[in-house]
Amino acid sequence: MDEKLSRAIEKRRDDLVALTRDLIRFPTVNPPGEAYAPCAEFIAQRLKKSGFETQLIRGEGTPGDTDRYPRTNIIARFDGRTHGQTVHFNSHIDVVDAGDGWTVDPFEGVVKDGKVYGRGACDMKGGLAASIIAAEAFLEVYPDFAGSIEISGTVDEESGGFGGVAYLASKGFFSKPRVDHVIIPEPLNKDRICLGHRGVWWAEIETKGEIAHGSMPFLGDCAVRHMGAVLDAFEKELFPALDQKQTRMPVVPEGAKRSTMNINSIHGGQTDDYSGLPSPNVPDSCRLVIDRRFLLEEDITEVKREVTSILDRLQWERPKFHYNIRDIMEVQPLMTERDAPVVTAVAQGIREVFGKEPEYVISPGTYDQKHIARIGLLHDCIAYGPGILDLAHRPDEYVGIEDMVESAKVMALGLKVLLSGSI
Ligand SMILES: [Zn+2]
Predict the structure, then answer these.
(1) In its keyword annotation, does this UniProt entry include Protease (predicted)?
(2) Distance of CA 16 to CAs 159, 182, 357, 395, 414, Å?
């Protein structure tokens, strides 16, 4: 590969590790959105030193935004000497709760056996650090590049991204002409390019009943039994039908290369937080939340109809069966074209660093790319970054130091291809 770029990154290896550890030490746990402002401020200070213009932007009035927990995002921009395109690296700074089962302190940034441990090490502070190092190395080697580089640290990805990328996208930060190409350094393995994700439909189904004394259930109507009939129909008809749906999307892991549905939760009758004994009632309501993941080949109206047609039929078959259904969230599936500029640039980086063809994948779940596509209307976007996806959100999460160094090289090469105007 480009020897000068490679050396510029190698000599920053210790800096990359130190930066990752510093980022892990901010316990940016979401919810509630702890330590966002100091973490964003830290990133701003770092990038200012490297010549970036920085802005802290609070997602005012977005879910969870309070003076105690402000949704503080950081956006940094470096304009080259000549005009050209803009490459943007977007990382989320929030992490999920550490949970139990750790053998090291999750917010210490422990380094052991060539790995940095901590909550967020792989998802995705290691990726953020790698993108900063990649940009700094690129600026040292190619100070006369054409175009601009942006780096953002955004909040709330783990809870939908509303105070982060969605907010910034609504203010024009993820649209042309400001930005042309976006790389999201989520942990998807250093030799894979993630082109997008499957679609999502979350809905709540409620079956209705009639309250009565539990000793005479025949006088009432049990909403939980009605929901039992719904689940039975799902088991017999819907789940087998979803299993049959294949896709041309290269979703990983293999099991997600078809339609899936998770029963997220079910609540019927009395809540279980009573003290003493429950009272003998026939439940008059039962609620079920479904989490349906769908494919590029499926239309969301059809996805919904598969469920409502079962419910409508039960209405004919079962006396007194009544239901309501409410949408909670919808996200369309996304797949960036393989010949899009950011894809070919990063692919070239992977070829040069690893001497092999990249693997192109689709994520089973969504991430902030959805807002960049839907609100920013920007489609030249991928996820590419170090770290092993399976380690995300788990105890003893880590990122490999060598993986970060290598993926920083890929990112820097990607910059070289996309901003090659005067190189
Ligand atoms: Zn993530």
Answers:
(1) no
(2) 27, 21, 26, 23, 18
Q: For residue range 55-85, list pLDDT tens digits in order.
A: 999 999 999 999 999 999 999 999 999 999 9
What topology is assigned to 199-330 in CATH? Answer: Alpha-Beta Plaits (3.30.70)
Rounded distance from Cα 119 to ligand 1 centre (Å): 11
Distance (Å, rounded) from C-alpha 117 to C-alpha 121?
6
Pair of tokens at residue 232:
């039975």
Helix (H) or strand (E) holding 278: none
β-pair partners for 260: 293
Spatial separation of the C-alpha atoms in residues 10 and 131, rounded to whole Å: 14
Cα angle 184, 189, 190 (rounded to 5 degrees) comes to: 80
- pLDDT-derived band at 421 (thresholds 50, 70, 90) equals low
Which residue stretches of 152-244 are H helix? Answer: 167-170, 223-233, 239-243
159 Cα to the center of ligand 1, angstroms: 10
3-197+333-422 and 199-330: identical CATH topology: no
20 CA from centroid of ligand 1 (Å): 15
CA 158 to centroid of ligand 1, rounded, Å: 7
Structural contact between residues 178 and 319, judged by C-beta atoms closer than 8 angstroms: no
State the residue for tokens 């650090």. 129
pLDDT for position 422: 44
Residues near ion ligand 1 (Cβ under 5 Å)? 123-124, 186
- 266 Cα–ligand 1 center, Å: 27
List CB contacts of 369: < 8 A, sequence separation 6 or more. 182, 184, 196, 197, 334, 381, 382, 383
| Cβ(405)–Cβ(207) below 8 Å | no
Considering the chain, what is the average pLDDT of its residues?
Answer: 96
For residue 297, the CA-to-ligand 1 centroid distance in Å is 26
The candidate with the shortest Cα–Cα distance to 40, out of 28, 52, 53, is 28
> Model pTM?
0.91
Question: For residue 72, what is the enclosing H or E element?
Answer: strand 72-79
Residue 96 CA to ligand 1 center (angstroms) comes to: 9
C-alpha 203 – ligand 1 centre gap (Å): 24
* Ligand 1 centre distance from Cα of residue 105 (Å): 20
Helix (H) or strand (E) holding 86: strand 82-92
Domain with residues 3-197+333-422, CATH architecture: 3-Layer(aba) Sandwich (3.40)
